[in-house]
Task: structure prediction
Amino acid sequence: MARPLTPFLWTLFSAGGTVAALLYPAHFFLTGLAIPLGWVPDPGYGALHGLLVHPLTRLYLFVLVSLPLFHWAHRFRYTLYDGLQLKHLTALIAVLCYGTAFIGSATAGYTLWTMR
Amino acid sequence: MSAGAHYTPYHPKWYRRRVSVWWWMESPSYTGFVLRELSAVAVAFFAVVLVAQIRALARGPEAYARFTATLASPAVVVLSVVAFLFVFFHAITWFNLAPTAMVVRVRGKRVPDSAISGSNYAAWVVLSAAVAFLMLRG
Result:
């Protein structure tokens, strides 16, 4: 990984970690557990779709998906190095981690941009 | 410095103790560190759930009903509960480390650690309430 990129990737890691810490528990609890399991009344497709089409919501959701993905990429990359001692695979791991984060962000961005 | 000085920054042949892949099981603080690092996997898992939610909402009511049904299936619920605990662990450890990562000074005096992590926790409560209000107001 080119050295000048490192501070930038660390900034993404830090920003993504903050977004995930502040917002993921609430979103996860509601979307992943409370709504599908019926612990709270389901807002329903119409209400959520209505929220989603607002331009600010689209921007918010893009940030909510992409920054934490790059947070994961950065942290997981170093976990693989330290935990499994895979320093010799540096380039491959970096490409796979940041590449996955990029693909996830692009998928979210494309859907949010094109949906009606 | 004499002209003959030379630097040898890298010695691949020097002896290095082999470290077990399980080094992080040796002490609770190492294990805590690795669990904290692995919380990023749960963060990525939920990011993927969010992408699936966005795509389902974009496709229509049937796709969204399938998305909700998938999340309610027993295997996914078990996975979600474990991942949620890790995401929660990430949030706690992130707020507690915030004072170390970010030193704030006001008029030359360092703001106490508890004020920085405390303001993070306060923002967490406010934002969580806002998310719940916007999603559930019906």
